[in-house]
Amino acid sequence: MNDSALGVITSFLFTTFTIAFYIGFGLHQPIWLLWIAGAWLVFFVVVLLYDMRHWGRPSFDTQGVRIYSRTRNLGLEDHETEGTVMGTCVKARNIFSSARAEMRAIIGGEAKQFTALVDEARNVAITRMCKQAKARGCDSIYGFRLITAETLWGSTEFIAYGTAVRSRKE
Amino acid sequence: MIVSTTEEIPGREVHEVMGVVFGSCVQTKHLGKDIGAGLRSVVGGEARGYTEMMEESRRTATERMISQAQSLGANAVISMRYMTAQTMRGAAELVAFGTAVRLR
After folding, report:
1. From A77, A88, A155, residue closest to B41, measured CB to CB
2. Composition of chain B by helix, strand, coil, percent to 5
């Protein structure tokens, strides 16, 4: 089974039983449990289907642009600098994965949901940067840098940037 | 004006170093886009409104850095870096900084 699916399912069960536990003990009305479980089930299926878009997504597409992170000793006498190119992606994880990752933060260990999120978003950012370089007619990117920042809204922002360089021969 | 993340520019030589130039932009959240982003944190996925907004404010920071470099009489900015920090609650600071130089 896909790791992401496992995360969604276990966090769904965890959330459902927690809510059912509190409400069930508070009201002593079993019919409420059914309603809540049903609502969660529908929500869970919708989120699972939405999340499935990202499963097995390939790694980033460089569009034939070569990426280097070095900033000196470039050895590019026959090239000219086009300028800075940048690709960004602000990503939010769904509530089930967030719940499980927060649980994981208490216990310790790797939060696999967020590893998947980071990989996805970084790939998107790098692909966008490469597309921009390609559109400006460049064949390589030097001085590549990648930064990650948690923005204010509980989502994570990924920025990939570098200097696009064009061959002078063409 | 050449803006580069590398320390050297191919085919050019650094003639004079002007010093470090900064450009910053403090961006607060957008009320309309925040509703969409709030929904995103439930369902998951990319918050497109915020991707565009942050890119735009980062461009503003870069432009400010460039105008500062121009006022120093530089014609290029090398070793440029971007930085993001949450300065106060509800606001993100985007900083672009680099070394203003005059190339030959």
Report:
1. A155
2. 35, 45, 20
pLDDT in tens, A19-38: 767 666 555 666 777 777 78
Per-position DSSP letters for B7-21, written without gaps between them:
SS-TT--EEEEEEEE
Residues A77, A43 share a domain: no
pTM, two decimals, is: 0.71
Cα gap A131→A160, rounded to integer Å: 12
- Contact map slice: A 113-142 vs B, CB within 8 A: 121, 124, 142
Measured between CB atoms, which of A83, A98, A151 is closest to B3?
A83
Q: What residues make up the domain containing A153?
A: 66-167
* A103 and A136 together in one domain: yes
Pairing mode of beta strands B45-46, A79-92: antiparallel
Q: What average pLDDT does range A121-129 have in this prediction?
A: 89
Same domain, A41 and A121: no
